[in-house]
Amino acid sequence: MLTKVLSATHFGLETIPIEVEVNVFSKGFPGFSVIGLAGKSVEEAKERVKTALANSGVDFPNKKIIVNLAPADIPKEGSAYDLPIAIGILRSMEAIPMPKEKSYFYGELSLDGTLRHTKGVLLLALSAKKQKVKNLFVPYVSANEAAVVKGINVYPVKTLNDLISHLNGVNLISPHKLVEIANKKDVFRAEFDFSEIIGQEQAKRALTIAAAGGHNVHLQGPPGAGKTMLARAMAGILPPLTEEESLEVTKIYSVTGNIPPGSSLMTKRPFRVSHHTTSRIGLIGGGSNPHPGEISLAHRGVMFLDEFPEFSRSTLEALRQPMEDGRVSITRAAGSVTYPAQFMLVAASNPCPCGYLGDEKRACTCSPRMIMRYQSKLSGPLMDRIDLHLTVAAVDTDKLMAKMPAFKSKTSKEIRGEVINARNIQKARFAKDKIIVNADMKNKHIKKYCELTGDSLLLLKQAVNTYGLSARTYFRLIKVARTIADLEGAKDIKASHVAEALQYRVRGVS
What we know:
This protein is an alpha/beta fold. The protein folds into two domains: 2-167, 2-Layer Sandwich (Ribosomal Protein S5, domain 2); 182-237 and 270-406, Rossmann fold. It has helices spanning 40-43, 45-55, 82-92, 121-130, 143-146, 160-167, 201-213, 227-233, 243-255, 280-284, 294-297, 313-317, 320-325, 368-375, 380-384, 397-401, 412-429, 443-449, 454-467, 471-488, 495-503, 506-509, and strands spanning 2-11, 14-24, 31-35, 64-70, 103-105, 108-109, 115-116, 135-139, 153-157, 217-220, 271-274, 285-286, 291-292, 302-305, 327-332, 335-340, 344-349, 388-391. The strands form six sheets. The protein has a five-stranded parallel beta sheet. Helix 2 packs across helix 3 (82-92). The N and C termini lie far apart (76 Å).
């Protein structure tokens, strides 16, 4: 008997419907074959399904079984085909009826017949709505992901026996309640609070501007100056994700299996940290079946790269295109995929290999050749894409040992409030455009939203002529000035805003 069961596969962030055809022959030698360009993990489904059915009290048919995953020219990977294959066999044995409405079956089976957390359920739900598939049968622990999509019935399945009972009309599974796409009360706390960081007020200001406008930052200074602490504290001033951003980020985390069982939408902005030994594929993405890299996992959040010059030159240069376009395209033999990568880069580095070049208290022990080789890893085009360049000097010993600080520093909560206010101004400004923050602006948006006053325009022209700024730097300066104005609640960009933006380009114009 031939049975057809609907399921799906994912290629990048695209979901492709798959028809699982199961034929149980009445004659022929017993056997179990899976065809249709099935990968190793799909081939292993034969043993999982056979054992899961046996442990669920179902006598596995001692007949010839062929499973075809159509269309056959698309590579199939993953364990999500376990459930549709099992359902197809059960239907071919006439042990269950199929639902009258179009239904997706999707999930990995344990050997005891329970369903495990399976990645990509949110993308499956979005595809089901697009394809007008009414019912979705997914693992219970993954159902929250799918339940954010309106207009479909999400059935959370705990065990294979539960699903058999439901399809036979014995014990019906209730559809999962709709999970509203709304930000829950945000109780996110960073590892460090800005008020705990002694001194470094200019660096705190720069990070505030970066968080408010989505700008890239480079912190340079000697070891122990507080660069890493400042970067990690930035996680505490990031605003919560908007509904649109939350869905974008959750899709990436869903397809990579990074959403914990039982969880739903991502509401906290990603803060990703990569070690300098991370490979180019690990950072950018890739593989034979192209998967997202760290920069895509940092979408709409922060990508922190400590010891910036210690990364390989090829890895750093690969960042240039995603930093400019906000997405990364990966082409392999299997096909081409595009992942979003609209992240804030926070990079930290020492001025030289020993770290003390230009330090007032300790002498640099590096030769000119060593310094040149170290600094040359950071190319001009790469650094030109970073908006804010800061020199973080070592904190004075007297400040560190003082019982009371000279003045009370703002807490992360206070700074976060300022950042959220600035983001709200940008949200209202870009309501009709497909951008969210100032850093996303293209040249046409800059002309429309960043009108300069007489003094600010004159100051910017003088800077361009004096330092020979590139066109990219010119427009990035205007974006930063616009963010500074938003933090002040100013409608127009003033000369003071341009002047502050210019002082953060010291590294870029020196």
